[in-house]
Amino acid sequence: MSIKWFGKKDEHEKKELPSFLNVPWTIRDLVIFVVAWFGIQIIVVLILKALGPEIPAVATFLRGAVNGALVPSFALDLLDAAAGFGVVALFLRHYHVGWNMVGWRKVNVLKALGYLAAILVIFIVLANVVLILVSVLVPSFNANQAQTNEFTGSSASHSSLAIIALVLLPPVLEETIFRGFLFPALAKKWGVGWGAVLSSAIFGIAHAQANISIYTFVLGLLLCFMYVRLKSIYPGMAVHMLNNYLAFLALSSK
User: Distance between CA 137 and CA 86 in Å, rounded?
Assistant: First the structure.
């Protein structure tokens, strides 16, 4: 079945939407998801702040998180993941569907390896081309801005936490949310192509650093393409983990 990536949304295009992308949730559900995902984290932090004056350990935890201390920051990363997976699970339960509906499906390993190798090569070339193009069009843009987070300069001494927080957890969470949950709903509303562009743009913006946002936008587009072809987000998780592992090695060298 051919897939119409871009174009006007009509009844004919609805028929062309791959069945595995025809999810029951809607754009309204995406808005509710985002509000709930961040709302849970905000409520937990507010509760901790309320408890801080009464419980010294909580106050210490919050100060550490504000100052970028590793353990409190790692705990907040776990909260972010738990909230994200939890809200997705609630939607799946609400619509009486399983995790396969967000792309957790078996995949042909040999076929996936072929796509994985091709996507990595295309990604490296395309990401650099886009970064160079943006640098030319926007002189103030710094394509080489260093990526920093709470693990910068400490990933070697806290390798276990860094591997979980940077390499393992984000790809599983982000592929589930951005490719498995957001992308299909957007594709159902505006078509596969615009769904890929919009979900990848949100994915890029979520990384909150100009050069990294462009980098992840390109990665998101390619991962959407791979999801459409393979009907599983597992290969995308593998590409994402490899990308993050390279970032981990770069952080470890600082």
Answer: 41
- pLDDT tens sequence across 1-15: 556 566 555 544 445
Tens of pLDDT, residues 187-206? 999 999 999 999 999 999 98
> Hey, what long-range contacts does 31-34 have (CB within 8 A, 24 or more apart)?
33/87, 33/88, 33/91, 33/181
Residues of the chain with pLDDT under 50: 11-14
pTM of the model: 0.88
Cβ-proximal residues to 69 (8 Å cutoff; 6+ apart), any chain: 150
Number of residues assigned to the chain:
254
Indicate the DSSP class of residue 147: P
> In this structure, is the dihedral angle defined by the CA atoms of residues 184, 186, 188 and 194, taken in order, positive or negative?
negative
Rounded distance between C-alpha atoms, residue 203 and residue 224, angstroms: 11
